[in-house]
Amino acid sequence: MSNSPKMLLSSTALIQTPEWKALSAHRAEMDGVSMRDLFTRDSHRFGKMSVGIPGLFVDYSKHRATEETLRLLTNLARSRDVEGWRDRMFSGEKINTTEGRAVLHTALRAPKEANIRVDGENVMPFIRETLEKIRVFTESVRVGEWTGFTGAPIRDVVNIGIGGSDLGPYMACEALKPFAAPNLTMHFVSNVDGTHMAEVLKKVHPKTTLFVVASKTFTTQETMANASIAKAWLVDALKNPACVARHFVALSTNAKAVTEFGIDEANMFPFREWVGGRYSVWSAIGLSVALSIGFDNFQKFLDGAQAMDAHFRTAPLEQNIPVILALLGVWYRNFWGMESYAVLPYEQYLHRFPAYLQQCDMESNGKSVDRDGVRVDYATGPILFGEPGTNGQHAFYQLIHQGTSVIPCDFIACRETYNPLGDLHKLLLANFLAQPQALMQGRTLAEAGGNPQKVFEGNRPSTSILLDRLDPFSLGMLIALYEHKVFVQGIIWNINSYDQWGVELGKVLAGNILDVWDGKKDTSSLDGSTAGLLARLRGA
Ligand code: F6P
C-alpha cells in the first residue's frame, strides 16, 4: 500500500480541503440556476457534456452543472489521488485494507499477456487455467457430452448462491437471453425461503439437472442449506449417492468446504480471495453465464469489461466516463443533500440490473467509518433503486417528477432491439427521451394553465446512457462502468468499498436466535420485542 500523505486525511479533513470548500461555494452560486437556461444560453451544451466510446454513449448535459462545476469536481478527484488509487487497484496492491486483500476483479478480464502480481505471484496463469476449465466444461454440457448420472443430457441448470453469487450471474443471464442456448434452461435459487427452491424443483427433472453451487466462502448459511436440500432431493430420486459427481459443481475459493460437502475438487471452479463477491461475475462465479451463452460470448463479456477498464485507466479525468458519473453523484450527495439515486433501464432484458447495482453500490459504499477508522462527517453512498422503463413510469416516477425529494436518475437504453414488434421499440425510446426532458424542463404555472397541481418544478437531473445494442460486450462495458464509478466515489469519501462488515451482525444474531429456538439457550439475550415475536412464531 502506498504511504501517500493523501491516505492520511481524516474524514473531517476532506470537508476542509480547499477543493471541497470551492465546491461548497460554487454550490451556493448554483442556487437558482436552471438547466433550461443553461441550454438556452449554450447551444453546444449537449456536445460539450457528452462522451462516448465505441458502443456506449453518455449524455450528462441534463445536470445542475456547468463547465466550472465539472472543473471543480475534477479538482476534487485529483486532490483525492483517484488516479493513484486506480493504478494501485489495477496493479494488485492490497487496497482492501480492512481485509488485507487486493481488489483484482479487473485481472479476470485483463489481456492474457498481462502480468499482475499478488504476493509475488503473477495471477494471470491461474486465471487463464480456470477460464480454460470453464470453457471445456461448459462446451461439453452444451453439446450434451457431459451427461447426468443416467446418461441423459443436461437440460436445466440451477445456480444456488446469494448476493454476488446470484445477482451478477442472474442479471447477466437475463440480460443476454438472446444469446442463450435453447436446450438449457437457467434457474436461480438464492433465498433461504423454501418456496424458492421448491418452486424450481417442481420444474426440473433429477436426471437432467445440473446444480451449480456458487459461494465464494462455501459457508454462507442460505446457500449451504439450499445446496443440502438439492443434494438430498437428487440422491433420493436417483437412489445412488454417486450421482452427485455428475449433477453438482462448485464455484468457490474454499476447496476444503467444497470437498466436505461432497463435491469432488475436479468439479470445482476456483477463484481467489481478491475477487469480491459483488465483483465476481467475471470469475468462476460466471460459470452459469458461460453455460447459458457459450464460452465465446462469455469471453466477449470479459472483453467488454476490459474495454471499459482501458478507458478508465487512460482517459483524462475530464473525459472519463466512470469518473464523470462518480463526480456527479458526489455533487448531488454531498453538496445538494440528495439521498437517493435511480437507475432506469429502458430495456426489458436489463430488468435485474437495478437489483444487481444495489449490491454493487450499496454494499460497497454504504459505510460510515472511513479507512482510518474515523466516523465520517459527510454523506457516503446513496440509496439506489430502479425498475425498467416504462413500467416505473406508472409506479414511482410521480415522486421523481413532483415529490419533495430530488432524485438523480440514470436512464439506459439500446438503439437496437432483438424484438422489433410493430412500433414498440420507437415507443419505448420516445419515452426514454421524454422522461429526462420532462424532469429537466418541468412545467411552469403559466404552462400549466395556472393549475398548481400540474406544475413540475423541473431542474431535476439525469444522465442518459445509450448502448448500440445489448450484447455480451456492451453488458461487460456497462457493468464495469458502474464498478469503477463506485470505486471513484469510495476513494473520494475515503472509505473501503471492498469490505461488508455491515452484514455480519444479523448473521450472528440469527445464529443466536436459532440456539434459543432449539432450547440451547434461554431468552435472556433477546430484547422484549424479539422474544415476543419468537414466542408467537413458535406458537407458544
Ligand atoms: O451479503 C454478504 C456477502 O458476503 C456478499 O458480499 C456476498 O456476495 C454474499 O454474501 C455471498 O457470499 P458467498 O459467495 O461467500 O456465499
Task: Walk me through the structure.
The protein contains 21 helices and 13 strands. The chain is an alpha/beta fold and 540 residues long. α5 crosses α15 (321-335). 6-O-phosphono-beta-D-fructofuranose binds at residues 162-165, 215-217, 220, 223, 277-278, 363, 500, 503.
Radius of gyration: 25 Å
Report strand order across the widest sheet.
1-2-13-12-10-11
As a percent range, the share of helical residues equals: 40-55%
Uncertain spans? 1-8
Total helical elements: 21
Q: Descriptors for this entry?
A:
alpha/beta; 540 residues; single chain; six-stranded mixed sheet; 44% helix; five-stranded parallel sheet
Structure summarized in a few sentences:
With 540 residues, this protein is an alpha/beta fold. The protein has helices at residues 11-15, 18-30, 35-41, 45-48, 67-79, 82-90, 124-142, 167-175, 194-201, 221-238, 244-247, 255-261, 287-293, 295-314, 321-335, 353-365, 397-402, 424-441, 472-492, 504-517, 528-537; strands spanning 50-53, 56-59, 117-118, 121-122, 156-160, 185-189, 209-214, 248-252, 268-270, 340-346, 383-385, 409-414, 462-467. Helix 2 runs antiparallel to helix 5 (67-79) and helix 15 crosses helix 19 (472-492).
